[in-house]
Write a structure and sequence with these properties.
The protein is built from 15 helices and seven strands. The chain is α/β, with parallel strands linked by helices and about 300 residues long.
């Protein structure tokens, strides 16, 4: 089914008959709005639930085709999205405010503002695809709720919500990452590491996952190592003490002293490439993952590492 093009408002033909009226019975999810109710029923309401706004007119043929489809799809989504209908003949100022130049124009409001739109009468499949880009799944809702309660300090409640999400969709990578993050915050770095190690290859190769894993790995090393003063004393006495340098680098990285941490790993490469399976090089790569490829320190120490390797 092809998209039926929109009709420009300036070229409309007004043949208002009662039979042409495209509105359907209204409900909690499908309703008409005016300039007086728009802010409350669309702008504010969209902070909780996405609101689809259909700008239409009685004289508009494609509007008559589109509105029943929109209503059917929205009603079938059981409250995941709402449909607000704006009669542009009665609400010309609203249409002008949002730059509506052709009908039908459909806008998606999320978080109090319009985030997407289309013009013309789309087939049902494309309507569902359009709405689906902005509607949270049940898993996403649980994740969002977990983030909110976690921010409020309710860590155990956040974990319960994430476990519920994991039961609903086992293996969901985003849920597993959230769980690992909460577990790490609770101090169980080994369990967080195990979760990260269990991720499928395509997820493990994501830049954000690599960065997270590098952070957890360094935190594990920093947690188990001797005090920093002791490590510095050991290095001063024996600059080739790569064990002390590795532990110190982890502690430095965890307090965000990345440049000195990189220097410690570089010194390990310089003095003993064989230590702990080339731990100096691996530590530098972990920090590169943490910083990102474009960071100046990544570029600087990549050049230094390349010089040693070649």
């Amino acid at each position: 089914m092809k998209t039926r093009p929109a009709i420009t408002m300036s070229g409309r033909s007004r043949t208002n008959t009662h039979e042409d009226h495209p509105t359907m019975s209204e409900s909690a999810h499908v309703f008409s709005v005016t300039a007086q109710t728009f802010h409350e029923q669309v702008v504010e309401a969209s902070r909780e639930t996405p609101v689809l706004v259909d700008f239409w007119a009685e004289w508009c043929g494609p509007c008559r085709q589109l509105m029943p489809l929109l209503s059917q799809v929205v009603e079938g989504m059981a409250g995941q999205v709402k449909l607000a209908k704006v009669d542009t003949e009665a609400e010309q100022e609203l249409a002008q405010q949002f730059g509506v130049r052709s009908l039908p124009t459909v806008m998606m409001f999320v978080g109090g503002r319009p985030v997407d739109q289309f013009q013309g009468a789309l087939p049902e499949g494309q309507i569902r695809e359009f709405i689906g880009r902005h509607v949270l799944s049940e898993i996403d809702k649980l994740r969002r709720e977990a983030q909110q309660v976690r921010a409020a300090g309710a860590i155990d409640q956040a974990m319960d919500l994430l476990k519920q999400a994991n039961r609903q969709e086992p293996g969901n990578v985003e849920v597993l990452l959230d769980i690992a993050d909460v577990i790490a915050e609770q101090g169980d770095l080994d369990q967080a590491w195990e979760i990260l190690e269990s991720l499928p290859v395509d997820a493990a190769n994501r830049e954000d996952v690599k960065s997270f894993k590098a952070r957890i790995g360094m935190a594990r090393s920093a947690q188990s190592g001797p005090p920093e003063d002791e490590l510095r004393t050991r290095i001063e006495k024996d600059p080739k003490d790569c064990e002390a340098r590795e532990a110190l680098a982890a502690k430095l990285a965890m307090r965000n002293d990345i440049e000195e941490a990189l220097e410690q790993y570089y010194q390990m490469m310089l003095r003993d490439r064989g230590y702990n399976d080339d731990a100096g090089r691996r530590g530098m790569i972990d920090l590169f993952e943490l910083l990102g490829n474009e960071h100046p320190l990544t570029r600087q120490y990549r050049r230094k590492m390349f010089g040693l390797l070649h």
